[in-house]
Amino acid sequence: MTGDHDRDGGGDAPQADGKDDRPELDVDTAFAALVAQFSAAPTAAHPWPAAEDLTEVEARTISVEPHPVTPPAATVAATVADPGYPAELDDHFVPPEPPPLPRGDAISRLAWAGVIGGPLVLLLAALLGGYLPFGVPTAVLLLALAAFIGGFVTLVARMPGESPDDPDHGAVV
Fold this sequence. Notes:
It contains five helices and no strands. It has helices at residues 27-39, 56-61, 72-81, 106-128, 138-157. The chain has a domain at 106-157. Helices cover 42% and strands 0% of the residues. By secondary structure, it is mainly α. The mean pLDDT is 76.
């Protein structure tokens, strides 16, 4: 069966004499012809279409002479030595001093210390625990775990919530 598989036409039904209305394409032969054309030398005087040929005026305006290249150092030296060159362009840009970081309140600083310090204590206990004569006390491990959980909960609880005057709720599905 051949056809375009649409339901409203007779494209799916074979013809009465068993022949198709279009010849079968031989893909291998078509591919071999394309490959032969690709590797063959052009037969015409110019292989591009005639619409892309230049007119006499366009051919005369195209310059194929290379432009002289001046090294960048010579250009900079010439502009600096120029008496009309403004001296303020020689100054380097110095950015202004950035403002100091906000200090934060004591609760948020302790929460961040617990979130960062708790896992660091647990990591050090895991790495150095075998080298200590009595190991790492269980109270230290529990305190590090409590510091991490407490700091995390504190930071999440202090996050700003939705503002009542913000009408935009983002993308609504």
